[in-house]
Specification:
Number of domains: 2
CATH architecture of the largest domain: 3-Layer(aba) Sandwich
Order of helices and strands: HEEEHHEHEEEEHEHEHEEHHHEEHEEH
Low-confidence stretches: none
Number of strands: 16
Mean pLDDT: 96
Amino acid sequence: MKPYRFRRSQELYQEACKVLAGGVSSHFRTLGRPHPMFFSEGEGTRVRDVDGNEYIDFTLSQGPMLLGHSHPEVLERVRIEQSKGQLFAAQSELEIELARLLTRILPSADLVRFSNSGSDAAHAAFRMARALTGKRKILKFEGHYHGWFDDIFLDVKPGEDGSGYRTSLLTGGQPASVLDQVVVLPWNDLEVVRETLERDPEIAAVVTEPIMCNNSCILPEPGYLEGLRELCTQHGVVLIFDEVITGFRVALGGAQEMLGVQADLSIYGKAMASGFPLSLVAGKRPFMECLADGRVIHAGTMNANIPVLAASLASVEILNRERKELYPRITRLGRRLMEGLHKRARARGLSLLVQGPGPMFHTGFTSLESIRNLRQCADYDMGLMDELAFGLLRRGVRIIGRGLWFVSAALTGDDVDTVLKTADQVFEEMTRRS
């Protein structure tokens, strides 16, 4: 009998449960398969778990490791800067240097303000929108994620009889009053947004992922973001783009550079600091002035601390320096991987849908030719997706269990070949079991 390949992870998880609530420090880590995993090191495209198993990594820590794990230039910049100090309850020159670089790079950023997480930055943007408009509601879209704070952590769920969808709270302890402050609509349907804005004068902001990354990696329909932009301007509503995932990943200037539509306020995080906790609210000057003049309070003891500023400066400088080669290569390798996965699955008789722009993409088993909104995601066979994800994990390829893949700048053509051969083995095994 073969020894259990994840035994040390299993033992550590059991120990963690004695001292950590649920054995984890983020709820979503409890969903790890076969149980929450423990890792010891990462370099480039590879990570190694505490049992010594090595993986080609496409989780990239849920997206931040765009440059790959342990990038030497990033780590060296952090080492140098944090040796001088970590936190001063004051400003540093690094803060100005990074802000100046970002306002040159990001399409709609006249001014910026730093925070620690995407949830922090989203919370600030919603507060700003309410203050700027004097209105109280935020309009979000089904399947989009803008952090775990009470004032936005809503989505739709099917009714108990399986028909119809209703807006629901997503956690215990969340006040029901949030249901009166957030409007949740289907994505990629411009007409329903138009009707809602005409009917409801209390909407302060429309917030959207410009590419719906958190569920099925769905691109906007042609003209959709342009339509949102026009409707928000027409109705005096603040347009917020959540670029926590797309920012710096699909292009240096994020989805706004890629798709050519600008928001009033934007939220960034993840890839901008290579795994260090930094986020950003950015926007056009008239919208950011409410922070500058103190009408809106935004605070945080740990905001813009020295190690995260150093990590972000190094990361963004590398991306800026290598942008002409780096982004086409990530996109090309991502699309080659997408096409190879689709071709090999179909050759085995498996209806695998692969969609996304390339730097990130989604895999799921469905008879549909494309997925364009959250409700169509119900057609995915999550049992088959679990088989694929766990089959890859056992063979040294790590992806996000719900089918999301992130591509790093460290990925090589040889890595892609290895992954496709591995995936073919998993597809063959899945076919034999069916």
